[in-house]
């Protein structure tokens, strides 16, 4: 109970900082692979407890990015732990990382409950929880995806998703590797 309370207070403080414009990320160039591995090792325990197969398709090297380490791990942790939370026992969660010359993409796919189409447009709203998620799991305040979305945006990234009810959800997170310059001719 104490860990849940501390987590809730942390989430509320993060939301307050986001709304006040004080959530600025302290970006430092660093390797993404150890950060991603750290998040996955933390979540793996919950996946094993639910007998969920956690598939990791991550190359042995990934490019470095300017990231705020703690916030980056918080964003990925929120998304991947949601995938585990909303996937029934004996399901599957896959995490795939890939890099091109321009982008690093992290894809999280689950075989979970999915998101009702009518709820999808509000998924990143503060305090929003989809109706089928409320029935599946009564804990949570609907802050995790709001915080993750804002952290990813602070890292100049984008998050998109597609979902099918009772079949699962896929989140696609993309971070630019090369700064684009605009030619003002």
What does this molecule look like?
This protein has helices at residues 2-19, 33-49, 69-85, 117-120, 131-136, 144-154; strands at residues 28-31, 53-57, 64-67, 92-99, 103-110, 158-164, 168-176. With 185 residues, the protein is of the alpha+beta class. Strands 2-4-5-7-6 form a five-stranded mixed sheet. The protein is globular, with a radius of gyration of 16 Å. Mean pLDDT is 84; it is low at 180-185.
Observed structural traits:
single chain; 185 residues; alpha+beta; disordered C terminus
Q: What gap, in angstroms, lies between the N and C termini?
A: 59 Å
Order of helices and strands: HEHEEHEEHHHEE
Low-confidence stretches: 180-185
Specify the biggest β-sheet: 5 strands, mixed
Shape: globular
Strand order in the sheet with the most strands: 2-4-5-7-6
Q: Structural class, please? A: alpha+beta
SS field, number of helical segments = 6
* Percentage of residues in helical conformation: 25-40%
- The oligomerization state is single chain
How large a portion of the residues is in β-strands, by DSSP E? 15-25%
Tell me the number of strands.
7
Overall mean pLDDT: 84
Q: Radius of gyration, rounded?
A: 16 Å
């Amino acid at each position: 109970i104490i860990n849940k309370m501390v987590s809730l207070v942390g989430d509320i403080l993060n939301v307050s900082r986001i709304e006040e414009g004080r959530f600025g990320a302290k970006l430092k160039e660093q390797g993404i692979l150890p950060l991603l591995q750290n998040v996955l090792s933390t979540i793996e325990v919950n996946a094993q407890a639910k007998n969920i197969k956690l598939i990791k398709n991550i190359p042995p090297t990934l490019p470095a990015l300017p990231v705020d380490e703690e916030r980056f791990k918080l964003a990925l942790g929120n998304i991947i732990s949601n995938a585990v939370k909303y996937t029934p026992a004996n399901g599957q969660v896959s995490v795939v990382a890939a890099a091109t010359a321009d982008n690093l993409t992290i894809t999280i796919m689950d075989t979970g409950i999915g998101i009702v189409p009518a709820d999808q447009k509000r998924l990143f709203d503060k305090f929003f929880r989809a109706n089928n998620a409320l029935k599946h799991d009564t804990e949570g305040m609907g802050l995790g995806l709001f915080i993750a979305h804002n952290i990813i945006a602070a890292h100049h990234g984008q998050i998109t998703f597609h979902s099918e009810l009772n079949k699962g959800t896929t989140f696609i997170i993309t971070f630019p590797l090369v700064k684009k310059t605009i030619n003002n001719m």
